[in-house]
Specification:
The complex is a heterodimer of chains A (350) and B (279). Chain A is an all-alpha fold and 350 residues long. Chain A is built from 15 helices and two strands. In chain A, α1 runs antiparallel to α2 (30-52), α5 (117-148) runs antiparallel to α12 (267-282) and α9 crosses α13. The N and C termini of chain A lie far apart (66 Å). Chain B has one domain: Orthogonal Bundle (MetI-like fold), CATH 1.10.3720. Chain B has 279 residues and is mainly alpha-helical. Classes of the chains: A mainly alpha (350), B mainly alpha (279). At the A-B interface, α3, α5, α6, α7 and α8 of A face α1, α3, α4, α5 and α6 of B.
Chain lengths: 350, 279
């Protein structure tokens, strides 16, 4: 039954095909001819499909298999990442409280940023934090990597120890830090008081005022240097040993070996580390809230950071458009650093 | 000759002293946390003399934390979230990455561009619109929201794709000639080969989800939905002077992550090193 209906279909199509071919021969107008030729190829492919008994061509089939692999991730990614990103850009030019109608504001949100002292403080603190954390972490992790790169006993254990702070949860370790650096009772201030004779009123208040950012920097260096150390270790292992041997023959000391071999050879690693560090510093939020935040996590002017302001404007004040404008500033900062990285990479590869 | 030998010894000593200092800096807060967790509130800050393990250790802190706050519920929520997210992340990313790395299809570059374009986009930039969207979908205050948020990262796809590209195409070609379907090639050939990359992804995802704070803070409002991080933070602000209890809770919250880390440590270090170099 199906076999005969198939052959009838093929016959019909072939008749139509023959008819079209005849028309093409008679047709003189170029445009119409082209159309007809296209028609012919369509008939041909349809006949082939029916003859071979397949509804889909091989390429389409292959595409469908590939899409089925991608779909689970891509659909989730689209819905929960791509759409919100597009939404975020649009929102920066709107005024919306999440329930009432949206109104278009143009550049007003960005103009408002200009005169907002809390925003300026957040931006300033984020940048100070970044300027302090990036070089310190870089130097500390490089130094650690160089020490651990030598043949020392228990290297693996040290490497694991250095990683502990990185994997440990922030809430837990910040709570220890807050006790260790407790202004009146903490061991750190206690040592300062007992051994260095810092007077009671001069003891540093680690988590308030201008010292906040310093504490945040110290904490971040401690937490993240193990991670970057591993990246540096990989870089160090990529330096050919002959370079050092040759330098030894020339009588170069440790410092000169570092200066003329290690440092230049590590330049691309350092570049990567600095870029990653900078981007991560821009995103700081939890560290600030947990070290310097009050009971319900609110930050004062001296400890506020950009992401905190995004959070506060959106989820406390429900000023979604303005919050998105602040987010755009964060995005721009990260974008600039990323572009610098792309350019640096292109130059390295060229 | 002798002085050279002496110099080498001095050098060794300096290196070891530095190592000890680093190790001390790294580990002291953890040791202090352990010690404070079994002390009474009066003993916690005693420094002169400092005792590591007090005369009668208050192991009861580790018991009391479970009744003072619904700690068991927090642990359960966090485990559920972390396990589901890690499994989803592994499955969907390795699936998509296989396609991007080993299959030829229409719009491949276009689709991959969508992933690339979002690298430079910190989550914090679009967390607000994402929240609005999820609220529209009725996911506010649901654990499902955190799963949706964490499970489909571009990072996983990148990591896996990079790894698959290092596996020779001939292997897939040979399997195809043998008549294996793409799904079988993925599960029988690629997946077993990609254990190191999968282990790296497990650690990154597990640690990230377990330790995440801002995500749960935005979405999870009801007490019974909270994660360990949120619960612990809440406890700290409520009982800010119950130092022993705070430290005991903190200790407990670290254990799963440390176990996972120690199990997959080797892969983690390799993973960080390789993502770092290729960046």
């Amino acid at each position: 039954m199906t076999g005969s209906s198939k052959s009838i279909q093929v016959e019909d199509l072939q008749n139509a095909l023959a008819e079209t071919i005849r028309q093409v021969r008679e047709e003189r107008d170029d445009k119409k001819r082209k159309k007809l030729i296209l028609q012919i190829s369509k008939y041909n492919s349809r006949i082939n499909k029916i003859k071979s008994g397949k509804l889909l061509s091989r390429q389409t089939k292959r595409d469908l298999v590939a899409y089925s692999f991608i779909a689970p991730n891509f659909i989730g990614f689209c819905v929960f990442t791509l759409v919100p990103i597009i939404f975020a850009f649009a929102l920066a030019f709107m005024k919306w409280d999440g329930s009432n109608p949206v109104s278009f504001e143009g550049l007003n949100n960005f103009k408002r940023l200009w005169g907002d002292t809390f925003f300026k403080a957040a931006l300033k603190n984020t940048i100070i934090y970044c300027v302090g954390t990036v070089p310190l972490t870089m130097v500390a992790s490089l130094a650690m990597a160089i020490i651990l790169n030598q043949k020392v006993f228990g290297r693996g254990i040290f490497r694991t120890l250095a990683f502990f702070p990185y994997v440990a949860s922030l809430v837990a370790i910040t709570s220890v830090w807050k006790l260790l650096f407790h202004p009146s009772k903490g061991p750190v201030n206690n040592i300062l008081y007992t051994f260095f004779h810092v007077s009671q009123e001069n003891l540093p208040q680690w988590f308030s005022g201008s010292l906040c950012v310093i504490s945040m920097i110290l904490f971040s260096v401690w937490k993240y240097m193990g991670y970057y150390m591993v990246i540096y270790l990989a870089g160090l292992q990529g330096i050919p040993g002959e370079l050092y041997e040759a330098a030894s023959l020339d009588g170069a000391g440790t410092w000169n070996k570092f200066r003329y071999i290690t440092w230049p050879q590590l330049s691309s690693t350092t570049f990567f580390v600095v870029v990653m560090l900078t981007i991560n510093c821009f995103k700081i939020y939890d560290i600030a809230v947990m070290l310097a935040g009050g009971g319900s996590g609110e930050l004062t002017v001296s400890a506020t950071v950009l992401v905190y302001y995004i959070y506060q404007k959106a989820f406390i004040d429900w000023d979604l458009g303005y919050s998105s404008a602040v987010a755009m500033v964060l995005f721009l900062m990260v974008l600039i650093v990323t572009l610098i990285q792309f350019r640096g990479q292109a130059r390295k590869e060229a | 000759m002798r002085s050279a030998h002496r110099k080498a010894i001095i050098r060794k000593i300096i290196v070891y002293v530095l190592l000890l200092i680093i190790a001390a800096v790294m580990i002291t807060p953890f040791l202090w946390m352990f010690s404070a967790a079994i002390k009474s509130d009066r003993e916690v800050f005693k420094i002169n003399p400092f005792v590591f393990i007090p005369k009668d250790p208050k192991w009861s802190n580790y018991v009391n934390i479970w009744t003072k706050i619904p700690f068991a519920k927090f642990v359960e929520n966090t485990f559920l979230l972390t396990i589901v997210v890690t499994c989803l992340q592994l499955l969907t990313s390795s699936f998509a990455a296989y396609s991007f790395a080993k299959l030829n299809f229409r719009h491949r570059n276009g689709l991959f561009l969508a992933y690339i374009a979002t690298i430079a986009m910190p989550w914090q930039v679009y967390m607000v619109p994402q929240f609005i969207l999820m609220r529209k979908m009725g996911l506010n205050d649901k654990l499902m929201a955190i799963i949706c948020l964490q499970a489909f990262s571009a990072f996983g796809v990148f990591l896996m794709k990079q790894f698959y590209e290092g596996i020779p195409d001939d292997l897939c070609e040979a399997a195809r000639i043998d008549g294996m379907s793409e799904y079988r090639i993925y599960s029988k050939v690629m997946l077993p080969l990609s254990k190191p990359a999968l282990a790296t992804l497990v650690i990154f995802t597990f640690v990230n989800t377990w330790n995440d704070y801002l995500g749960p803070l935005i979405y999870l409002k009801t007490q019974s939905k909270k994660t360990i991080q949120l619960g612990l933070k809440m406890f700290i602000s409520q009982y800010s002077s119950d130092y022993g209890l705070i430290m005991a809770g903190s200790m407990l919250s670290l254990i799963p992550v440390l176990i996972i880390f120690l199990c997959f440590q080797k892969y983690f270090v390799e993973g960080v090193a390789s993502t770092g170099l290729k960046g």
